[in-house]
Amino acid sequence: MDRSLLRELPSVDEVARDGRLKGAIEAHSSAVVMGAARSAIDSMRMSIIDGTLKAVSIDSAVERTLGYIDCLTKASFRRIINASGTILHTNIGRAVLPDEAIEALRFAAEGNANLEFDLEKGERGERDSHVEGLITKLTGAEAACVVNNNAAAVLIALNTLAEGKEVVISRGELIEIGGSFRLPEIIKKSGCILKEVGTTNRTHGADYTGAMTDATALLLKAHTSNYKVVGFTSDVPLKALVEIGRENGIPVIEDLGSGSLADLSVWGLPKEPLVSESIAAGVDVVTFSGDKLLGGPQAGIIAGKREFIDRIRKNPLKRALRAGKLTLSSLEAVLRLYLNRDKLREAVPTLRHMTRDINDIEEAAMKARPLIEAALGAPFKVWVEKDVSVIGGGALPETTLPTWVVSITSESIPAEGISRLFLSASPAILGRINRDRFLLDPRTVEDPALLVPRLK
Ligand SMILES: *Cc1c(COP(=O)(O)O)cnc(C)c1O
């Protein structure tokens, strides 16, 4: 180590006074710039000590300082263009909101709103009131309330109805959803005792009745949304489970997960269970996500018999898990769109993307191809081919939707490298890799120009 280098390090003041940092002081305050200069000099000192820095100058100190300022002040949240071919991609925030919901969000964010305020009586109101009527109308349930996500909905429903008691569930339904939602753990954390019945592939009505004791408080059915057991299988349909519950005086909860409010089969897609069907089957409480097939904001919706919803609302956990004005205002706007079935498909991006015309996708891919080629330059091969999109969000795991993709390869850069290149663009573009090709699926990108990377 060269000790004389340490003495050459500029002081924090010297760096902060440099003219090149004037703009940064104006934009971000002198405290931010001083802090960044301190970090820059500290890091230079470390590099001198470990022998990796061989020369010191005010220029390099200023440059490092600008780097630290950039790190601190640049937003961490960045836009991603979803060309992954997964319509509801959990890691990038699932459903894209309809315009009406964005409008509602904006106005709720800009000022105050009657979130929990009854304008007619001029007194405190109930925050679920904005959406409860819509949910009950759309599902046939007697009552409904909303929490932050479906995991929270399951947690509070179990805790309210069965704390300290046994929850009976089929072994085949002890699911794990991505992001460490494991039903056995949620059951435990909600203060309930898990009682598994049946086997992985087969569970019968007698398994449930045989498992019931004085400690049984609840029968739970979970929609095995993200996988399917095939072959020698049997499960107890919700209606039969409701019957068993009724005979024994035990309530039944269904965790639907993606729970749909519109029958996808009218658009030629496979059918996903409808929330209204669960309610019609007589289930006491059903829980589902706001940002899966519904196509709204992240939320957990709990619908069912008034007696149970009232108890859930009174649970102190509701206070901890309640949704805020941004969630409730945008959820209300999305639910309102469901009142007009004729315009629904066009109005909700998730539904629009699931049902997008294949020729329209091909046209978008064809349009984007030469633009991408021009933006990338010579060493890339860019062409259009057939592939498949998936729905994601734990919905219809076996269903693939035919699509057209822009495929990109390079002799010198592996597909992972091309993927990183697109992620470094502004805005970042998320594609997917398949058979050593980097693929961009225009299904969820309505303007093909957005598939063209703006590289720095
Ligand atoms: C997705 C899902 C959940 C978790 O819902 P979040 O809204 O992600 O919290 C729970 N159960 C099932 C069956 C699901 O599909």
Element layout with pairings:
Elements: H1 3-8, H2 12-17, H3 22-28, H4 30-49, H5 58-73, E1 80-82, E2 86-88, H6 99-110, E3 117-118, E4 123-124, H7 129-139, E5 143-147, H8 150-162, E6 166-170, E7 176-177, E8 181-182, H9 183-189, E9 193-197, H10 205-211, E10 216-222, H11 238-248, E11 252-257, H12 275-280, E12 285-289, E13 300-304, H13 306-314, H14 316-321, H15 325-337, H16 341-347, H17 349-354, H18 358-376, E14 380-392, E15 395-410, H19 415-423, E16 428-430, E17 432-434, E18 437-440
Parallel strand pairs: 1-16, 2-14, 6-9, 6-10, 10-11, 11-12
Antiparallel strand pairs: 3-4, 5-13, 7-8, 12-13, 14-15, 15-18, 17-18
Helix pairs in contact: 3-4, 4-5, 6-15, 7-15
The site of pyridoxal-5'-phosphate has 15 residues, from helix 8 and strand 11.
Structure overview:
The protein has 456 residues and is of the alpha/beta class. The protein folds into three domains: 71 residues, no CATH class; 108 residues, Aspartate Aminotransferase, domain 1, CATH 3.90.1150; 249 residues, Aspartate Aminotransferase, domain 2, CATH 3.40.640.10. It contains 19 helices and 18 strands. The strands form five sheets. A seven-stranded mixed β-sheet has the order 5-13-12-11-10-6-9, sandwiched between helices. Helix 6 packs antiparallel against helix 15. The longest helix has 20 residues. The chain is globular. The site of pyridoxal-5'-phosphate has 15 residues, from helix 8 and strand 11.
- Uncertain stretches of 5 or more adjacent residues: none
DSSP helix count? 19
CATH topology of the largest domain: Aspartate Aminotransferase, domain 2
Cα-to-Cα separation, first versus last residue: 37 Å
- Identify the strand order in the major beta sheet: 5-13-12-11-10-6-9
Strand content: 15-25%
The best one-word shape is globular
Structural class: alpha/beta
- How many beta-strand segments? 18
Helix content: 40-55%
The hetero molecules present are: pyridoxal-5'-phosphate
Radius of gyration: 27 Å
Number of domains: 3
Largest sheet features: 7 strands, mixed
Q: At the first level of CATH, what is the class of the largest domain?
A: Alpha Beta
The named CATH superfamily of the largest domain: Type I PLP-dependent aspartate aminotransferase-like (Major domain)
CATH architecture classification name of the largest domain: 3-Layer(aba) Sandwich
**If you average the pLDDT, what whole number results?**
95
